[in-house]
Design a protein that fits this description.
The protein is mostly helical. 91% of the residues lie in helices and 0% in strands. It contains three helices and no strands. The longest helix is centred in the middle third of the chain and has 66 residues.
Length: 122
């Protein structure tokens, strides 16, 4: 206890302004402690997700490389199955098929996004 508190306790009750000032300071201290607690809690949860995000991005890059290889291989297979096409023609057809699949997936994604937007607006 501070000397001022001891003085007021021994003689008379503390005045309202002193009590109010102390309550405000304790409230600020409590708020700072709560903010620090939740900040540390969030940082501890996010730190575990950073490694997962790195692995997820690496997996997406490998998936993209694998799909590209698959489409080029499909184009080369088309070139051997249909010799008139040639290698360039087979690769172009493989790329067109890949673009069609990409367009289909994008169309499906846009449809789901629109549907989710309509549901959230209700």
């Amino acid at each position: 206890m501070t000397a001022a508190r001891q003085q007021y306790r021994s003689e008379e009750p503390e005045p309202i302004p002193v009590l109010f000032a102390r309550a405000v300071e304790e409230g600020k201290s409590f708020a700072r402690a709560e903010v620090n607690y939740y900040k540390q809690l969030a940082l501890s949860r996010v730190s575990g997700l950073v490694g997962a995000a790195v692995f997820g991005v690496a997996a997406l890059f490998l998936l993209q490389a694998s799909l590209t290889t698959l489409l080029v291989g499909f184009g080369l297979a088309l070139a051997t199955w249909f010799p008139r096409l040639g290698i360039a023609g087979g690769v172009v057809i493989g790329a067109v098929i890949g673009l069609l699949l990409t367009g289909l997936l994008a169309w499906l994604a846009v449809g789901r996004i629109k549907a989710a937007g309509k549901e959230s607006a209700k």
